[in-house]
Design brief:
By secondary structure, this protein is mainly alpha-helical. The protein is 78% helix and 0% strand. It has six helices and no strands.
């Protein structure tokens, strides 16, 4: 957002946000492995598919604009896509409230990054910084509150106890 004042900070900022996406992805994958939500609903597959199609299309449509940072943006788009897809595949049966908060947060994070990329690489637009900050803030609020509520719900420890009991028999 402050690229015009500090142009050298864009890549470190991109790397920082990439790390955040990877951290969320790791948590979501651990959450998926822990709760083993293999009886998922078709809506989760649909949400994951739509997220994947969106991020691939976003990159394909705009890849010429990303030319100066080609592999960096490809890596970033892949990371945000994996983060969004893994958020969609979390268990929604045990705690639907936290599931939808986290999924909405992931979608707002994708939207925020999309707005930022459009403004920087494709076509600058009025109020871009405000929209990027607003969608980013909503994303982080939903992600953090959803994850916190899930962790505090006790489902993680309850599932671990069940798995430990099964292993001991």
């Amino acid at each position: 957002m402050f690229d015009n004042m500090y142009p050298t900070l864009f890549l470190p900022g991109l790397f920082s946000f990439l790390c955040v996406h990877v951290c969320y992805f790791i948590f979501f994958i651990k959450n998926i492995n822990h709760t083993r939500p293999w009886n998922q609903h078709w809506t989760q597959l649909a949400a994951a598919t739509l997220i994947l199609v969106y991020v691939v299309e976003f990159y394909v449509i705009n890849h010429e604009a990303f030319r100066e940072l080609g592999w960096e943006t490809l890596l970033y788009v892949a990371a945000i896509g994996v983060m969004g897809v893994s958020a969609a595949f979390r268990d929604k049966v045990q705690n639907p409230k936290t599931y939808y908060k986290v999924l909405a947060g992931a979608l707002f994070f994708i939207l925020s990054d999309s707005l930022l990329a459009i403004n920087k690489f494709v076509n600058p637009f009025e109020f871009a910084n405000l929209l990027v900050l607003l969608t980013y803030g909503v994303a982080q609020f939903l992600l953090i509150t959803g994850i916190s509520e899930f962790v505090n719900s006790g489902l993680l420890s309850a599932k671990k106890t069940v798995d430990d009991v099964k292993k001991s028999h």
